[in-house]
Design a protein that fits this description.
This protein is mainly alpha-helical. It has one domain. 64% of the residues lie in helices and 0% in strands. It has 13 helices and no strands. Helix 1 packs parallel to helix 3. The C terminus is likely disordered.
């Protein structure tokens, strides 16, 4: 990378060689030696530190292949490095393929892993994530998920249709996260609400804006409903339903707006007419 920074093929060949050797020695103790583990982690960390854009990793086919062969702790460390680079450099991820690629690199932070992490239940963890009493460190878990959630705000495209595809791709990747959706779905909803307002502004130039917007509100409703059904986070769900209802009203979808507030009542939230009027404007 230092000698031939513009030739990604050379860097990928090195990663490919490491992958082959990892497969060759997979059942041998040499691969578990601390020096070997450290060297492999350094090899995977090098492109993250060297290239100015984290998206360059997606042009190295052997990077994720090698990463997937590593033990949980290395995969977790690399995922943290990827997220840290995105946030530090404010890297905008502007296509569905790039969203899928980046989230695959961070899979260890997104869903349960068979070899470690919050495996089999939302708060089962490896020793490194537990405090001295043996309980899961919930603050560490929340901080980790909060960092990951921040990159969702960098999933954006100047093209509204592409943005819709980006949000759909992110939803599919994040939906299997169990307890993690508590942190992942709210920013996803906020991004979708922003997109609905963008579609509204395109009403004079895009004949299909109304259908696209209606589809988007259906997407928003599904995401909030999943969050409500799978995670005990009623206060956030309430705010998201109200936000979505307000946005639907602003975009001229009275029926959809009504559905959001009916859902709020059906789910057992007690809202007075005064509260609704004060927070999001008169609906009835």
């Amino acid at each position: 990378m230092s000698c031939y920074p513009d030739n990604l093929e050379y860097a990928d060949q090195v990663l490919g060689f490491a992958k082959e050797k990892t497969l060759e020695y997979r059942e041998k103790p040499e691969l578990q030696h601390k020096d070997t583990v450290s060297n492999l982690q350094n090899l995977l960390t090098a492109p993250i530190q060297h290239y100015s854009s984290i998206l360059t990793l997606l042009d190295l086919p052997n990077f994720n292949s090698l990463l997937s062969l590593q033990p949980y702790q290395i995969r977790r460390a690399i995922a943290h490095a990827v997220v840290g680079s995105i946030l530090k450099n404010e890297t905008v991820i502007s296509t569905p393929d790039d969203v899928n690629g980046i989230l695959e690199l961070c899979a260890v932070m997104i869903r349960d892993q068979k070899d470690g992490g919050h495996n089999s239940s939302p708060f089962r963890s490896t020793r490194s994530s537990r405090n001295e009493s043996g309980n899961v460190d919930l603050e560490e878990f929340a901080e980790e998920q909060g960092q990951l959630a921040r990159i969702i705000h960098l999933f954006r495209s100047d093209d509204a249709d592409t943005q819709a595809a980006i949000l759909s791709a992110a939803r599919k990747q994040l939906g299997d996260g169990g307890e993690r959706i508590r942190y992942m779905f709210p920013p996803l909803v906020i991004q979708a609400v922003k997109l609905a307002r963008r579609f509204k502004k395109l009403q004079d130039t895009d004949e299909g804006w109304e259908k696209k917007c209606a589809t988007l509100f259906k997407f928003i409703h599904q995401v909030i409903s999943i969050l409500h059904n799978k995670v005990d986070n009623s206060d956030v769900v309430l705010r998201l339903f109200l936000l979505a209802g307000q946005s639907a009203d602003e975009c001229g979808f009275e029926d959809i707006c009504y559905e959001f507030f009916v859902q709020v009542r059906l789910d057992g939230f007690l809202l007075s007419r005064h509260f609704l009027h004060y927070e999001v404007g008169a609906v009835y």
